[in-house]
Design brief:
The protein has 302 residues and is mainly α. The chain has 14 helices and no strands. It has helices spanning 2-25, 30-61, 66-71, 83-90, 93-123, 130-138, 149-158, 165-188, 194-201, 206-217, 219-235, 238-243, 252-259, 267-301.
């Protein structure tokens, strides 16, 4: 009994001494506290201002008249005038928005599905020649889209897909599959096999395991891939300029470019159109930012 009672007493005597030493070790030095930390906060604040100020200025300018924009570009609008938004709508922004929405959503679904299938087959099914197939798919990362414009133009014209939204969807999917496959595979490759093996024992096939086990576990990286595809497809300009000719099928980047006239430009309407074009990307990132960060950080650690 004396031994059991003496041990807690000695431990209790040593505990305050340990916590005091530990607290002393984690104290910040004066240089870190008064120089490095304030400098980091100043740099971060400057970055926030550099990112947000152009957006805020663009939004405020969309409520001004052309005279106010050129007279005092940094002043607040005297009144919130929505005429610029009505003018932007009259110039076809809603049609551009709809075309971009169709192409972007369709390409997101196809890119995520095809890349998920490919990643699952390459790292979970142990198919023959998976290594060479992976190298072949990743080889697409070395192909620059601008280099392939001429042969792709001839191909789309030959098969009757020139001046169609389908052509843009095919191109957006084809050029994003290599990167998205690499991204999703880097996340899938180290997922635990225990749950999948248990499902196989219970009679689940590869198809059921993919949809009910692997895809739910890959939600963060799928969200990250979807956000990256939104940014790419929504802002893509070269393909949309070359492969679309009809004004009714133009996407937002090309449509906004045509709103800028050679002699005169309705700048308030252009700023209003830019606000309309930027909102979907901003909202998408705000909604999916947690999954986006989780997916990229987890994928980079695999």
């Amino acid at each position: 009994m004396s031994i059991t009672k003496s041990l807690p007493a000695k431990a209790a005597e040593k505990t305050p001494e340990f916590t005091g030493q530990d607290r002393h070790k984690h104290q910040l030095s004066p240089v870190s506290k008064y120089v490095i930390r304030p400098a980091i906060w100043i740099i971060l604040a400057a970055l926030v201002v550099a990112v947000l100020y152009p957006l805020i200025w663009m939004i405020l300018s969309s409520f001004k008249t052309s005279r106010q924009i050129f007279g005092d570009p940094f002043a607040l609008p005297t009144q919130f005038n929505f005429d610029a938004y009505r003018s932007a709508i009259d110039q076809g922004v809603i049609g551009f928005f709809g075309n971009s929405l169709i192409v972007t959503v369709t390409s997101i679904v196809l890119v995520v599905l095809i890349s998920s299938f490919a990643a699952y087959a390459l790292c979970r099914l142990h198919i023959p020649f998976s290594g060479p197939l992976l190298m072949f798919i990743l080889g697409g990362l070395m192909l620059a889209p601008t280099v392939a414009l001429v042969p792709l133009f001839n191909l789309m014209a030959a098969i009757g897909l020139y001046d169609t939204r389908t052509a843009l969807v095919i191109l957006y999917v084809a050029f994003r599959i290599p990167f998205t496959t690499f991204l999703i595979r880097s996340y899938m490759v180290d997922l635990p096999n225990d749950i999948e093996e248990a499902a196989t024992i219970d009679g689940a096939g590869a198809w059921r395991a993919f949809w009910q086990i692997i895809m739910p576990l890959c939600k963060p990286i799928i969200a990250a891939a979807a956000v990256l595809q939104v940014i790419f497809a929504w802002n893509e300009y070269a393909f949309a300029l070359v492969f679309i000719d009809s004004p009714s099928k133009l996407t937002l980047p090309v449509g906004l470019d045509q709103m800028e006239g050679k002699l005169t430009t309705d700048w308030p309407a252009l700023f209003a159109a830019l606000v309309i074009a930027a909102l979907p990307v901003i909202i998408t990132f705000v909604i999916g930012q947690k999954q986006f960060v989780r997916g990229l950080t987890a994928g980079s650690n695999k």
